[in-house]
Amino acid sequence: MNGLLLKSLDISNFRSIRGQIHAPLDAKVVLVHGENGAGKTSLLSAIELALTGRVQSLERADHGYEKQLLHRSALEGSVSVQTLLGPAELGFKALVSSSGVQSVSALDAPMASFFRERAFLPQSLLGQLLQIYQEAGSDANSPLAQFVGKLLGLDQLDALEAGLKPLADVRNVRKNVDGWQAAENEKSRFDRLLSDQHKIKDGIQAQIRTALAELTTTCASLGLAVEVSEEELGAIEAGLQGNTDRQALEELSDRQRKLASLRREIEFAQSTAETEANAAPVATEDTGDAYAAWQAEYANRIASFRARVEGLFPEASLESAPEQAAQTALRWLLAEQKQLSERARQARADIQRHKVARDERDVAHRQRDTIDEEVDRLPSTAGSLGAILAEISSFVTDETCPVCDRDFTEVSKVPLSEHLRHQVRNLSASAERLLMLGRTRSELQVMIERLDREIETIDARKPGEQALADIDRRRAIVETLIAELDELAEALAQGSQLRAADVAKRRAVSEAQSRHVALTAARETLSEYAVSIGGSPVAEGETFGAAVTRLDAQLVEQANRLDARLAMRRRGSDFIATVRSAVARRNETDAQIATDFASWQRADASLERAKALRDQGNVIRNAVDTVRSAIIRREFNERLNRVWRDLFVRLAPAEPFVPAFRIPVESTQRIQPKLITEHRDGGEAGGTPGAMLSAGNLNTAALTLFIALHLSVPKELPWLILDDPVQSMDEVHIAHFAALLRTLSKEHGRQIMIAVHDRQLFEYLKLELSPAFAGDSLLTLELSRGPRRDSVCIPRRYSFKEETALSVAA
Amino acid sequence: MSARLVQAIRARLQAADYVDLATPFKLAGVDFAFTGAMRGRDGRALDLVLLVDTTTGEFGDRDGERVRQRVEALSRALDVTGSRYVVTVILAGAILAEGIEALSETCRVLQVEGITLDPGGTPLDEAAREQLNDRIRVLLPLTLPIADIENSGSGPAIDQLVRSLPKYLNKELLDAVIAASIDGEQAVTEAVAGVIDQALQSGTAEEQS
Q: Which of A405, A644, B90, B110 could connect to A708 by a Cys-Cys bridge, CB 3.0–4.6 Å?
């Protein structure tokens, strides 16, 4: 493409050009002249549009620029450029309408980008060139950095880098991505929920373990050969409900009754023996009488007392001796009283606590409902809405709402900005409130769980009202009995003495009657009985009383043991009930955990997807850095500096300092080319061009930089199109600049197109760029327009003319 | 025999294909005498270079006012004959700054001084040669360093970026940020936020479905 030459340009109703103009361009130099507003810039941008389909300088200023390209008086327009590639002709064209641009044929993308970057210097870019030196500094926003960026298409990379920067810090991500914070909150809400539920589950688990351990101990003490675990509860329960102990207890009661009847038989036999023996020991008659009198007085009372006590303790039986019986009864009664009071107290406390706990649970439920209600009322998007409103508030300048365009004073006396601020404050307060409510709710939930458990435990433990009444009744009976026993105490003591005396007497009688047949039989029966209940037979010399007492004690001891076993079985059943209810609760909790975990996973997956995108954004950003550094290093090399220096010295031969690019070598971050000046004869001057060069030479530096950028790469398109580049250069530089253009045109085959508005300058350039040899050519285009007529472009072609003035010299 | 500095300039210009003109020369019937006059060839055929020795020259070369008058007269003569010659005056030696300013209204003025020369009138070393070149560089051909084709840019910056990115990147994200990059950093931030937000929303949508 490096032989491609511009041939001609046709413009119809484009920007400030009204009507149609045709401009030939097939010359080595094309000079465009026109007063300000005549359409020079339109003409040059028409070339850009036809060749590339875009007008970059306008695009930067306004995105909707495409709709502004049509001349305001026209309905349709077009721009087209004809080019020559050797003998072949290539056309480029774009159609312009009020709705935009339609490119019919354009250069391919790399060529178009070469054109924009290195062949065409629009005024806006030149303006930027001039700015570069006004500000020192090498940061990302310095005019130099911006210029370099625009020139090399780095501004897009810069935008990417700066735009992706918020991704680096998660706080900025939250600020910029509306849903991020919400997703994080959602996830952490499920996190908390799950951890609460796990805690609850752990509690239940611990409860189950404790109950199982107790159950194990119970089973071990009962000698049940079962393995204690949650799965075996049925088997254990069956084992615990086995009625071997009950049967044993029933048998034992039978035996006790039998023993009691034996005793009565023996007593009867003895008393018979005594009566027979009474005749002999008269001396002791008093004793017997006194005892009989005492018995007459108290026997009934004692017997009834005894019956009542035995009624109270059906499994047990009292000794026959009233005093011992009284003592045993007292012991039993006191123990029973204590136990009953304990149970009654416990039951009352349970009932009390049960009620209080239920009230507390109600309160907690109501509080939770209140929170739920409030949460429902609070918009969950309060935070984002608040952020959006905060953004909007910067657009509120008066009382007109930027959203609906209505005057806010119609609605309220409060100023709109104040209203908006108030709303934002409310909304962000709502967002915080929402978080706070969430926390409180989860605390409440834990409390409700705890109360539920407690209530359930109490429910399992507490006796019914009926049972409580029974306990109370029984306690009353016990207390009555104790009181009665108290009353009887003296009588019993007396009776005891009497009885002792009586017994002593009877012993004597008994000894005397030892060989009494009935007693012997009784003794044998007793011995048999003793053997049958597993005890030793009545020994020689052992009294009936002692033997009976011994056997009785043995039975009582057995009964106690069985009682304890039965109690243990009951406790075991209680534990099983506890374990079952705990397992049920644990299963519920497990189900809830599964549901919440699924939600958590979804939230997590969402967040992970977003995080992956964020990471990719960071990858892009890092790549931007690398690519930009590579481009800058490639473009701002020694070759560029050499060309730039040459061009600059051409235009400013008297300036001892020349500008140059320096790229910091050590920097790994964003590479920014730095401008320095060097002394022309070698050595670095140190200062920036802005500090070292005069204003005129700064402009020279800017312009030569663009041309150097054009020259420092292969000539893909041999065009240099400059839009009014010398309006503020002083005369010296214009002369040199003209010489440079000539050099580029005539020695380096560049097709030069330059627009100027200054008439004198135009004339001067026309002279300076006159054709110098056969085949050299110059075209001038004079643009003009009037308020009511179409634009006019008058071309004039100058061809080579042999110079004769000097040949006449001597 | 002219001064060594003038010799050196003349030699340099001759090397750059300029030819000497005999002086004094006649233009529009008027004689013009200069220490030296040269003209270029081909592309520079319209370059008329006048040498003025401000240190030791004759023809009033040492007087700025007289030099200006002579150059203005020449300029007028060129105008009268309709000539397209472009005049460049090279002042060899020191001169006051005002002198250059006045002269530069009529023609291109280059000033050469302080070049170290050997007795034969050639620059003493490479540095001196380069100093001389710098002073009259606008008259010399422009030599471009050979372009490094290997390293020349390969397409627009954005294309280079896209090529350098790993392939696994989410295409939606990449397209969105690149499209937005034309509109500046704020647009990029919004675009990336939009894509991420969508990813978050799509998760929520699944949850609801």
A: A644
C-beta atoms of B204 and A159 within 8 A: no
pLDDT at A763 over 80: yes
Question: Which 8-state DSSP code applies to residue A138?
Answer: -
| Alpha-carbon separation of residue A244 from A218, A239, A248, A565, A600 (angstroms) | 16, 10, 6, 10, 54
Q: Are A184 and A634 in contact (CB under 8 A)?
A: no
- B202 to chain A: nearest residue by CA? A606
| Parallel, antiparallel or unpaired: strands A751-756 and A29-34 | parallel
pLDDT at B149: 46
Compute the mean pLDDT over every residue in chain B, rounded to the nearest whole number: 81
The C-alpha atoms of residue A419 and residue A671 are separated, in whole angstroms, by 47
Cβ burial B86-125 (10 Å sphere, 16+ → b, else e): bbbbbbbbebeeebbebbbebbbbbbbeebebeeebebee
Where helices occur in B120-168 by DSSP H, the ranges are 126-135, 157-164
Kindly state whether B26 is in contact with chain A, defined as any CB-CB distance less than 8 angstroms.
yes
Instruction: For residue B42, give both structure tokens.
Output: 């081909």
- Across A687-698, average pLDDT: 77
Indicate if the pLDDT at residue A475 is higher than 80.
yes
As a whole number of angstroms, the distance between CA A66 and CA A15 comes to 10
Top mean pLDDT of A57-66, A148-157, B85-94 is at B85-94
Q: How many other CB atoms are there within 10 angstroms of residue A578's CB atom?
A: 21
> Position A683: which residue type?
G
Are the C-beta atoms of B40 and A776 separated by less than 8 Å? no
CB contact under 8 A, A162 and B188: yes
Nearest-Cα residue of chain A relative to residue B111:
A654
End-to-end CA distance of chain A: 48
Identify the three-state secondary structure at position B91: strand
Inter-chain CB proximity A177 and B197 less than 8 Å: yes
In contact, A665 and A113? CB cutoff 8 Å: no
Instruction: Give B105's contacts in chain A (Cβ within 8 Å).
Output: 731
Residue with tokens 């005397």: A512
Q: Are strands B86-92 and B108-112 parallel, antiparallel or unpaired?
A: parallel
Tally A–B CB contacts below 8 A.
272
Residue A30 pairs with which residues in a beta bridge? A753, A779
Measured CA angle at A321 (ends A317, A327), to 5 deg: 70
Torsion from C-alpha of A292, A297, A298, A303, nearest 10 degrees: 80
By the CB < 8 Å criterion, does A109 face chain B?
yes
What's the Cα-to-Cα distance from A334 to each of A327, A475, A485, rounded to whole Å?
10, 10, 11
Q: Is B164–A623 a contact, with Cβ atoms under 8 angstroms apart?
A: yes
Looking at chain A from residue 745 to 804, which residues have their Cβ under 8 Å from any Cβ of chain B? 745-748, 767-768, 770, 772-773, 776, 801, 803-804
Best residue in A606, A655, A734, A763 to probe B by mutation, most B CBs within 10 Å?
A606
**DSSP state string for A492-505:** HHHHHHHHHHHHHH
Q: Which parts of A345-415 are beta strand (E)?
A: none
Q: What is the pLDDT of residues A396-432, one digit of tens each?
A: 777 888 778 888 888 788 888 888 888 888 887 777 7
Q: Percentage helix, strand, coil, to 5, in chain A?
A: 65, 10, 20
Q: What is the ipTM for the molecules in this complex?
A: 0.76
The pTM assigned to this predicted structure is: 0.53
Residue A25, helix vs strand vs coil: coil
**Using one digit for the tens of pLDDT, what is the confidence trace for A198-217?**
999 999 889 888 888 888 88
* DSSP structure class, residue A461: H
Chain A interface includes B98 (CB < 8 A):
no
- Residue A401: CB atoms within 10 Å: 17
Radius of gyration of chain A (CA): 58
| Chain A residues with beta carbon closer than 8 angstroms to that of B43 | 742-743, 745-747, 772-773, 776
What stretch of H or E contains A94? strand A88-97
